[in-house]
Specification:
By secondary structure, this protein is α+β, with helices and mostly antiparallel strands. It has one domain. The strands form three sheets. The protein has a two-stranded antiparallel ribbon. A hairpin with a 2-residue loop joins β1 and β2. α2 packs antiparallel against α4 and α2 runs parallel beside α8. The longest helix has 36 residues.
Length: 252
């Protein structure tokens, strides 16, 4: 157990050091390039790739999305889409945690409305923000299948085109949960340096969050991704994502 904890701490420290130390040099086969995490041109290239892939995926997935919408409507009362506020990118300088004086509250990033196919029963009243659990009784039969293969995330392709998200990036969290995690994990706000994503390095390697320890583990992957981020890295994660979906790794 001590060895596992030491390995996790080493990854966290290495990830933070990689973010701070740039330019970084990586090797991809026979190609060598330098990636500066603060480079606007590098992030512009990543953004163009993500928009292109999201556009193509949305066009190709439209028949599947239409079929899913019909199934949801026929099998459970309520809307087809589920809308939820999430915390997005924080474009302020790192270290300015006090927030912009023009803001009434520091949410940790720009909040936006994220779209998903509805996979749960519609609650009778207001519901508080909580993580979904394995064998969650709120999940509908159709929703259970969608969550297994993560097809409930398809509407977020629209969020990518709207500029709220990328295809690849750290998953956006709900504001109340974000505020709680920020208090418990010092490095947690560092993941807001980039646009959140539909998939990511953490999602490729880990299952859904169900505890703060899960979040800590995923955070190490998110920080690792941020320090290495590039169009090549995003493309690699995109290519790995279908295998995770078809293998149903970590979905419930």
């Amino acid at each position: 157990m001590a060895r596992v904890q030491h390995a996790r701490q080493s990854r966290n420290i290495a990830s933070r050091n990689q973010i701070a130390a740039h330019p970084l040099r990586f090797h991809w086969g026979m190609i060598t390039w330098t990636n500066d995490p603060t480079s606007q041109s590098g992030d512009f290239g990543r953004r163009m790739l993500n928009v292109l892939i999201a556009t193509l995926a949305l066009v190709l997935a439209l028949p599947v999305m239409a079929a899913i919408a019909v199934l949801i409507k026929l099998t459970s009362p309520g809307p087809v889409l589920f809308r939820q506020r999430r915390v997005g990118v924080d474009r302020r300088a790192i270290g300015n945690a006090g927030g912009n004086y023009r803001r009434h509250a520091d949410s940790g990033g720009r909040t936006f409305t994220m779209y998903k196919f509805r996979t749960m029963q519609v609650p009778n009243g207001a519901s508080r923000e909580v993580w979904a659990q394995q064998n969650d009784p709120r999940v509908t039969p159709v929703g259970r299948v969608l969550r297994k293969v993560r097809l409930d995330e398809l509407p977020q392709l629209w969020n990518v085109l709207m500029g709220d998200m990328n295809v690849v990036g750290p998953r956006p969290e709900q504001p109340t949960i974000f505020a709680s995690l920020r208090e418990q994990i010092e490095e947690y706000p560092l993941r807001q340096q980039v646009l959140p994503g539909i998939t990511g390095w953490a999602q490729i390697n880990r299952a859904y969050d169900s505890s703060v320890d899960d979040v800590r583990e995923k955070l190490s992957y998110d920080l690792e991704y941020i320090s290495h981020r590039s169009a090549w890295e995003d493309l690699k994660i995109m290519l790995l994502t279908p295998a995770v979906m078809l293998g149903r790794r970590g979905g419930w």
